[in-house]
Amino acid sequence: MPYRILCLHGMGVNAAIFASQTAPFRSLLPNDYDFHFIDGPFESESAPGIESFYPNQRYLCWYDTPTTAKVAAAHRHVLSIIDRDGPFEAVMGFSQGAALAASMIIHHQLAHGTETPPLFRAAVFMCSPIPFSHSLEFGIDTRNYFGTPASKPNPARPACPTKVPEYLITDPRYLRGEEALAADKQRKTPPKEDIGQGGVVTGAAEQACAPSLSSSSVLNTYYQMFHHTTDSVRIEIPTAHIYGRKDKWRLHSMDLVKLCDSTQVSVLEHLSGHEVPRDASEDICDIVETVFARGLA
Questions:
Q1: How much of the chain, in percent, has pLDDT values that exceed 90?
Q2: Contact status, residue 1 vs residue 94, Cβ threshold 8 Å
Q3: pLDDT in tens, 237-260
């Protein structure tokens, strides 16, 4: 039977787009792998430039901003799919999907240790930002960077670091917190009130799922970013890290490498940006097959 690979798309695309983006290198792989692409649960702005290639689509995400509450909800959503459709031997994610996969793997290790079977036996991270935690026990407190003043210390770790390395501060669009996102929604025409096709949350239903922006809720909003300088945990399965030399998230992807067991890491830096370049298909195929062979054998 083929090995089953769970595939998590990036922010502002969807499962079908991610399947299309990865089709060139997947077509070069042997028939040993069954790739299972799933949709994120929330509607999103389209990823930059994506509408030119994939117009008139539902553009989706796993969360609109990585608060501890929303990262936890994303974990629960994907775990429910694993329970329903799994098991999956490996995971492949792009951008936000890669960061979510890394976060889930790390949290599974933290909860269960390395003596129990891992959540996945291998992982492919493509153009990944640094993952975020759903727990106040881990990571750097990044509230100030997302526009949520850290007026009180992290209650779980009063001495929690609050300084992010400058080289990781890259995209103002990504750093919109709850208040900025709420202001953006108010400036737009109110969407239809329904649950869209495939259970995607839209319109007023989506707003109902979002936390209230009362002063108390803002004060209880946290953003905890995993980082190798703060967290001792390392991903203990074979991992492939694929990123572009021109990608503004390149340094994030390089720091994710440092959150993984250095003896089980394989890295491919292609010459493009935040994408899955068609002209690098053979190289991507090689590294994916190498990591899967190592982890799934």
A1: 79
A2: no
A3: 999 999 999 999 999 999 999 999
What does the alpha-carbon distance between residue 119 and residue 91 come to, in Å, rounded to a whole number? 9
Tens-place pLDDT, residues 96-121: 999 999 999 999 999 999 789 999 99
Query: Would you give the distance in Å from CA 55 to the centre of its chain?
Result: 23
Could you please report the per-residue DSSP string of 53-97? HS-S---EES-SS--HHHHHHHHHHHHHHHHHH---SEEEEETHH
- Read off φ and ψ for residue 6, nearest 5 degrees: -80, 135
Give the type of residue at 251: L
Measure the CA dihedral 25/36/7/12, to 10°.
Answer: 100
Separation of alpha carbons 213 and 54, rounded Å: 34
Strands 33-38 and 224-225: unpaired
Please calculate the CA angle 179-78-210 and round it to the nearest 5 degrees.
Answer: 20
Residue 156 has pLDDT above 80, yes or no: yes
- The C-alpha atoms of residue 102 and residue 126 are separated, in whole angstroms, by 11
